[in-house]
Structure formats: structure tokens, C-alpha cells
TrEMBL record:
InterPro entries: NTF2-like_dom_sf, SnoaL-like. Residues 13-106 form the SnoaL-like domain. Keywords: Isomerase. SUPFAM superfamilies: NTF2-like (SSF54427). This is Ketosteroid isomerase-like protein.
Length: 124
């Protein structure tokens, strides 16, 4: 199993259990994580905070990976996610995540997704 495949499995387990510890364990000690915000999370504490924050946005969430590839120390995953936000609204969105692999661990994680899915339509 590649590091990318391990990552995908660990993410799905974290989503199902709401416990990111198995996912965080795949990260290198000096990992950096980023999403569409301007903030960057660093180190194991940053990884823990990043994944806890991600999971806390949802009542339930499930990522399904449609494509993935790993080569030359990088993994790319294309995915669709479906679930319920904390307020009970349904959500479905898609994106791409990239990992840089360092000694079999995630040395960097970047994710890009359809952020419009998180915006409620204007009330009339």
C-alpha cells in the first residue's frame, strides 16, 4: 500500500470515528498543512489541530476518492465529499489534495476544494 493509499484510508477512518489520531500519526514531525485559508498549520500539534477543526465542521462527512496517484515523493487525490454540516444542512463538494511524502510520512498536505458549497444561499 502506498503512503497515499494509507492516507486515504486513514482519512476515511477519521471521518467515520471522529478521531483523527490514526491520520495524524501518518504525518512527519515537521509537516505543514494548508487549505484555502491563508493560515498554515505546522508540526504534529498543527496536524492535530487541522484535522480536529476539519472534523468539527461536520455532523457527518465521508470522502470518496475518485482518482489517486503517487510518484516521485508526491501523492495526488481527487475526491468527492458528502455529509451534513454542524447545523444539519446537507453538503456535497469536491476537490483535490496533494501530499508531499518524506520518509514514508506526510511532509506537507495541501487541499483545494469547492468552497462555494459552504456558503448558504441568500434568504429572500
Amino acid at each position: 500500500m502506498t503512503t497515499t493509499e494509507e492516507f486515504m484510508s486513514a482519512l476515511q477512518n477519521a471521518e467515520a470515528s471522529k478521531d483523527p489520531s490514526g491520520l495524524v500519526a501518518l504525518h512527519a514531525g515537521d509537516v505543514t498543512l494548508s487549505n484555502l485559508t491563508t493560515k498554515t498549520w505546522q508540526g504534529m500539534e498543527g496536524a492535530q489541530a487541522f484535522w480536529e477543526s476539519y472534523l468539527s465542521d461536520f455532523q457527518e462527512i465521508r470522502s470518496e476518492f475518485t482518482h489517486h496517484h503517487e510518484s516521485d515523493g508526491q501523492g495526488v487525490m481527487e475526491w468527492n465529499a458528502r455529509g451534513k454540516l454542524k447545523n444539519g444542512d446537507d453538503i456535497e463538494y469536491r476537490g483535490v489534495s496533494i501530499i508531499e511524502i518524506k520518509d514514508g510520512k506526510v511532509g506537507a498536505f495541501r487541499t483545494y476544494y469547492d468552497s462555494a458549497a459552504f456558503v448558504s444561499p441568500a434568504q429572500e
